[in-house]
Amino acid sequence: MSHFQEFIEFVTGPCAHLLDSDDSQFISSFQTLPEDAQCLFVRGLNRKSPIIKTASLDYEEINNTQQHMNTLLQQGFYQPVTEQHSDQLLTTLTKPELALVLRQAGVNLKSSDNKATYLEYAMEVCDFCHLSPLLGTENLVRLGFETQIRYFLFLFFGDLRSGLNKFSMRDLGIMPTRRGVTQDAARFDFIDEAKSAFFYACQRKDMHQLTISQQLELAIDVKHFPSPQGTLANINYDRFLCKLGKAIVSHQPELGIEILALSGEPLAQEKVIRERYKQGDKEWVKQRLEEIIDNPDSEVLLTFAEDFLDRKFNQKRTSVLTDMLREQSASLKIDEMYMDSVENGVKVHYQKQGKQVFRTENRLWRALFGLVFWDELFENQQSSLITEFDFKPQSISQNQFYITCEQAIETRLYRMTSSKAVFMQLSKVMLEKYGSPNGIFRWHRSLLEVLAVFFDYVDIDAFKAQMRMMAQDFKTYGDGYPDLMVVDENGLRFEEIKGPGDQLRKNQLLTIRQLRQQGFAVRITQVEWFLDPLQTYAVVDIETTGGRANHHGITEIGIAKVIGNQVVDTWQTLINPQRHIPQKITQLTGIDNDMVADAPLFVEIADKLKDYLAGCVFVAHNVNFDYGFIREEYQRLEQSFRMPKLCTVREMRKAVPGLPSYSLANLTRHFGIDMSRHHRALSDAQAAAELLFIINQSRHQKIADSENHLPE
């Protein structure tokens, strides 16, 4: 109730001018209810579904539940479930309830069928009459005043995804908020803007629940919809039309194109051009592309228009994305152990050459943007957060930051006279604001080090130009930044890493091209895989108290270190898991509570283990199990744990396909591998190492075969 009152105070305070007579009447009616009736209604608001089992609304702290339920039903706060809610009701039913409904419809499914199958059949064959055994307010009720509540949530949170549960998450410390730095103001100046934005937000969100026939009917009705009022309404209007047009264009192309053409979204405009080109309307397409190039609405649309015109009308055979990859990229061979983390593989490669390398991606540039414009983003009344739950400043969400704060932005950029001065200023902001929740970037312990290196090399004018571009169009230039920042004898450069088969995305193209235009060195590096015969592998096996890393603990670790085709070292230790070892685990492993009573805690061997694993590939049979437990132990110590990893189950399936089982016991039996003590860590690790020899022999042979078959 206190959360709901906090919520309503915002709606009736800063947002009072955005309420119509129905909204005000709902609030007035709610406030005249007895307190227990209010509590009973608010309990329902916190449910996931608006359809609620009446029996579940019985709470010890609410007196005379049935009496208050009758009051709420009489005044419409709860309502009976009617035929229009049939599909929604079906999705809330349990499997036994769905079985009952299906029997009413004359359908009997197997008890072994899953709930999804039951629901699919129920949606197809059941009418409202088949739901009769479950209906009646003594069984089910539905929340009333849904439109008002939904509108109020929209006014408070600015979207339709959020609910009142965020208040509880805040109080429990699960969700950090920006309490104390928000402004006491509404998101909208006028009720027409608020209602318009809400209308199109609802259309956009609810569209995915419609069948294709309902979507087609909606598309026909769109021409009668009211014109969007205000920035947020226009954003939701454009996105709604884009979503609707894309959904129906394959069913009714002309109608779909008509809907897409109404949208201002670049993706919608692209889709219109592609669809009309497919229909053979090439003269119109060419004219439209030339119009965009002469007077572009956005950099995204301009890039598409130039590329599409070149490829479809000027006989250019490759896209601009392909050209950038082919003509402006370098090639690098990296050990295939980094297949799951190609950027980290390139980073390690460069570090071995003595270069400074940092994983940056969007994190660096978003942090730079957030730190440079902290006051304008989070302290300025024109741009700051509305409620403490806001993820991003409204001006960023609506891509209006530069328009809203142009003078302050230009003044700040004008005062940036040197890289050293900017670094000192951003360091000060970090010192004062470190850890403050914000929707622009995440804080990192290494951020100051990265900034220090960046500002040692950056050209201040290039930096200022990029900050201005982000301020003017954060929607386009808020992401797509290269993976790495590298410093070597040639200075500082950024590097986008692409593994075999990886494609350059359009947002990456735009951002990389923009950085280059500002004078930043940006390289695209395409990685090829190779297998290093001298790579060191750490074949790991652990024993645990159970199967869940976040709940159970490690009792033993065994490691066989492998180079080439031999085990060069082993390491083993029992671990005190600081929890009881179940009897069934002892029967499996032979490890009991007495054996680990005097064993070291994980914290006592953590540093030694990390040192032992350094520079290795982490190998295990079902690697995510062993890796996950060890990573969880380090997380409990507030330490990170990250290594390249290889799974002997997955790799054995590739090396020797078609075996009936790939369990460790069956594989060792199949290949005649000696295993002295199954389910003891070191014995299992040594057995898995033997499997690794077979795997690597197969991998080397495949590489040799492919090289022998290369065309001359």
Task: Give a short summary of the structure.
With 712 residues, the chain is an alpha/beta fold. A hairpin with a 2-residue loop joins strand 10 (554-563) and strand 11. Helix 12 (231-248) packs antiparallel against helix 13 (253-262).
Please describe the biggest sheet, giving its number of strands, its sense, and whether it closes into a barrel: 5 strands, mixed
Based on DSSP secondary structure assignment, what is the total number of beta strands? Answer: 13
Mean pLDDT: 91
Give the amount of beta strand, in percent: 5-15%
Rg:
31 Å
**Helix content range of the residues, please?**
40-55%
SS content category: alpha/beta
Shape: globular
Strand order of the largest sheet: 4-8-7-6-5
- Ends distance: 77 Å
Task: Give the helix tally.
Answer: 34
Spans of at least 5 consecutive residues with low confidence: none
Topology, please?
Layout: H1 2-12, H2 21-31, H3 35-45, E1 51-53, H4 65-74, E2 78-79, H5 86-92, H6 95-104, H7 115-125, E3 140-143, H8 146-157, H9 165-171, H10 191-206, H11 212-221, H12 231-248, H13 253-262, H14 266-278, H15 282-294, H16 299-313, H17 320-327, E4 329-335, H18 342-352, E5 356-359, H19 361-372, H20 374-379, H21 394-397, H22 401-414, H23 419-433, H24 447-457, H25 460-472, H26 474-477, E6 484-488, E7 491-498, H27 506-518, E8 522-530, E9 536-544, E10 554-563, E11 566-574, H28 583-589, H29 593-596, H30 602-613, E12 617-620, H31 623-636, E13 645-647, H32 648-655, H33 664-671, H34 681-708
Parallel strand pairs: 4-8, 7-8, 9-12, 12-13
Antiparallel strand pairs: 1-3, 2-3, 5-6, 6-7, 9-10, 10-11
Helix pairs in contact: 1-8, 3-4, 6-7, 10-12, 11-12, 12-13, 13-14, 14-15, 14-16, 15-16, 22-25, 23-24, 32-34
